[in-house]
Amino acid sequence: MKLQGKSALITGAAQGIGLACAEIFAREGAAVMLADRDEARGREAAERIAKSGARAAFVACDVSKSAQVQAAVDAAVKAFGRLDILVANAGIVHAAEFLDLKEEDFTRVLDVNLKGVFLAGQAAARQMVKQGGGGAIINMSSVNAVMAIPNQVPYVVSKGAINQLTKVMSLSLAAHGIRVNGIGPGTILTELAKTAVLGNREAERKILSRTPLGRMGEPSEIASVAAFLASDEASYLTGQTIYPDGGRLALNYTVPVAD
Predict the structure, then answer these.
(1) CATH number for the domain whose boundaries are 7-188+222-250
(2) DSSP code of residue 214
(3) Residue 99 and residue 46: Cα distance in Å, rounded?
């Protein structure tokens, strides 16, 4: 098990990619602290993972609030003795055309998606430096860090900034043995994507026409990348963002979609 003896904090872990990360980390031997604003789903997920024989717990956390982020780090240390891995995954979206976007909605998305990654990374890194032994931080980005969707202004901006935050964090923390990398998924079949896309043939065809592998990804496929980045197998990798996107970023035009 590649994460045996490690302790991980995962934000946005009540569902989707965050939950998939918690599940695979636990299977790989890590103790996992799930953090999310959704207390009911988060606690249920942690209890389910714990029943499998892994060490798992839940802490309520709004990543845009520094005190709650610090409390989540403290909870992980209290439960497991130390903190070795952070997956900064929590994120939200807000759809609006550029000319109609309200300031408060722009700020709200960046507070969670960007400031939340900064706060979690800083709090986790301080603990890692304090305890010694290095660590691994994984920031959840998106293909939309380098592409753009017209009506997802704050989301696109936040993900682009996460890529730069990942780079500067990796440089700042290298001397402490802390590696910092990002993951930029393409379209992944989370609960939100399933609701928005599956059953809407036009939306599905649009996505698949931009995806050379001809399918959308699964949360577990992103979690597998996170487990690799968190492990010693990625010991010489830092400051990078990896894009599990089915080939989307390499594609200039479109590909045929079967009826």
Answers:
(1) 3.40.50.720
(2) S
(3) 42
Say whether 106 sits in a helix, a strand or coil: helix
The continuous run of DSSP H or E covering 11 comes out as strand 7-11
Chain segment 19-42, per-residue pLDDT in tens: 999 999 999 999 999 999 999 999
Structure tokens that stand for 120 in this block: 């979690």
Domain boundaries, the chain: 7-188+222-250
The 8-class DSSP code of residue 257 comes to -
- How many angstroms separate the CA atoms of 85 and 9, rounded? 6
Only one residue has tokens 């249920």, namely 44
Q: Is 155 a catalytic residue?
A: yes
Length of the chain: 259
Give the pLDDT mean for 82-93: 98
Instruction: Kindly state the average pLDDT of the residues 49-58.
Output: 97
pTM for this model (two decimals): 0.97
How many whole angstroms separate alpha carbon 61 and alpha carbon 217?
27
CA 88/CA 229 separation, integer angstroms: 13
Residue 194 phi, psi (nearest 5) = -60, -40
CA distance 20 to 28: 12
Q: Which of 155, 236, 243, 253 is catalytic?
A: 155
Q: What is the pLDDT of residue 200?
A: 82
Tens of pLDDT along 103-142? Answer: 999 999 999 999 999 999 999 999 999 999 999 999 999 9
**CA distances (Å), origin 220, targets 17, 22, 224, 244:** 7, 10, 6, 11
Strand partners, 135: 178
